[in-house]
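A quick aside before the break. I want you to see a complete sequence-to-structure record at least once, exactly as it would be stored in a machine-readable document. Don't worry about memorizing anything.
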Amino acid sequence: MYFRIRKEVELRLMMEAVSVKLGVEMSALRFHFDEKRIKANQTPNELELEDEFVIDVFVFQLGGCSFCHRR
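That is the input. The structure line, written in C-alpha cells, reads:
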C-alpha cells in the first residue's frame, strides 16, 4: 500500500486506513520502522522519516503451540 502523509500529521491516520483496508482491528496490528514499534500519536517528523520510507505491518498473535506445553 502507498500513502502520502504530511510530516507533522500523526501516523494514526495512516494506521486507521491500513486497518480498514486489511479488515483487521487496529489493536491487532503492529507497525514498525527500522525494527522499532511506532505509536499512533507519533509523526514522521518525530521519527525523522524521509520520503519514500517503508513501515512494516504485522498482525499481533497471542498464544503458542500445544507441542510447546507438553510435559
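Two observations worth writing down. Residues 10 and 42 are 5 Å apart (CA to CA). The helical segments are 12-22. We'll return to this after the break.
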